[in-house]
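This section describes the prediction task in plain terms. A model, or a person checking by hand, is given the sequence of a single protein chain and must write out its three-dimensional structure as a string of tokens. No templates, partner chains or ligands are provided. The sample shown here is typical of the held-out split.
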Amino acid sequence: VQLQAFGGGLVQAGDSLRLSCAASGLTSSSYSMGWFRQAPGKEREFAATITRSGGRTSYADSVKGRFTISRDNAKNTVYLQMNSLKPEDTAVYYCAAAVGTDSNLMYEYRYNFWGQGTQVTVSS
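The expected answer:
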């Protein structure tokens, strides 16, 4: 199983970025997905999650209304559209897969597989 996250970069405050996470070795409908992020000197935190069917999403309060998580099961890919980026969004963003469950997705322990992370830097 491999998760590959990409799409990060250096942008200015107010800009947008779209992160992608491509999964291989998993049947797309068998896993929920989450995006987590870790800012310098801070603990990793939940940002957004999506259930196996894509029917339910959840967001951290800090990103609600600005970020949108979606998935294309035909492509085995999950996306995180990030709009109105702020300097405090600067972090390494990780995607993760939780196999066979749609519940408690904001908790890291629910996830079986993790991607390598992609850096997002937002300048003021």
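For orientation: Residues 14 and 84 are 4 Å apart (CA to CA).
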